[in-house]
Write a structure and sequence with these properties.
- There is one protein chain.
- This protein has one domain: Ferritin, CATH 1.20.1260.
- The chain is mostly helical.
- The protein is 72% helix and 0% strand.
Length: 256
């Protein structure tokens, strides 16, 4: 597949097929009395991070990047709506855990400022780093939750974020058709991922400690997903097989 022949219409259809999902409900708040208060605070920080992203839609629509088209911009708009749905789900989780929604946080602000200073390519790379962090964190939290609705919601978020990861990797793969571009991507990606994981581990250290999740375990999981994302960008054959699998799960066929 050449860099300018990505089937963005397929991605638009993929996200469109999920936009009618309704917001879930949780169990009674007393179900979660044993969960540390630090978890609610931690999820509130992620909730804030999932609430933005509107600027990138306009940037995608006005971009002169030849590897994207109107279908990509439409898919990006649907992706942002899905992220906003995640924010609403996390808000439900935070309130059921007895926590409060927050309006400001230094790590969320850092990601926002970073994205605003960048062009579309680097902005998507930062979004990809956020997806990797989210996948790992939601999954690790789910392993520490009792068998409740909260655990299943965290698992649902993980599955959504995995498809977001594929979407962003598909864009970045289209930007790196040459070997030197892939090498440059790997360098920038590893620096970005290292910084993002470090910042998040500092900000969420209390929740990690209260849930008995060691920094070593969390770090290894993040780096594992980081390498997975890296391969989806740099290994075209592997990536296209993975994308076909993802689309086939929802009845979409590559090439249509």
């Amino acid at each position: 597949m050449e860099s300018n022949s990505v089937n963005w219409r397929l991605w638009q259809r993929f996200f469109a097929g999920r936009r009618s999902r309704t917001l879930p409900t949780l169990d009674a708040p007393e179900t979660y009395v044993g969960i540390p208060a630090s978890v609610a605070r931690s999820l509130a920080i992620f909730q804030l991070g999932e609430s933005g992203g509107g600027n990138i839609i306009q940037q995608a629509r006005s971009s002169s990047n030849k590897s994207i088209d109107a279908h990509y911009a439409d898919a990006m708009a649907l992706f942002v709506k899905e992220e906003h749905r995640h924010a609403e789900i996390l808000a439900i989780c935070v309130r059921n855990l007895g926590g409060s929604i927050i309006r400001h946080n230094w790590t969320a602000r850092l990601f926002v400022v970073g994205r605003r200073l960048m062009g579309l390519r680097l902005k998507v790379l930062v979004l990809l780093a956020a997806e990797v962090v989210g996948i790992c964190y939601y999954h690790l939290l789910a392993t520490r939750m009792p068998k409740t609705r909260l655990q299943s919601l965290l698992t649902e978020l993980v599955n959504d974020e995995r498809s977001h990861l594929h979407f962003h990797c598909c864009f970045l793969r289209a930007q790196t058709p040459r070997r030197w571009q892939r090498i440059l991507f790997v360098i920038v990606w590893r620096i970005t991922m290292f910084a993002a994981a470090t910042v998040v581990m500092i900000d969420h250290r209390k929740a990690l400690r209260d849930l008995d999740l060691s920094f070593g375990r969390v770090w290894r999981r993040w780096m594992s997903y980081s390498r997975c994302a890296e391969r989806l960008v740099t290994d075209r054959e592997h990536a296209e097989e993975s994308d076909c699998l993802l689309f086939s799960e929802v009845g979409l066929v590559v090439g249509r």
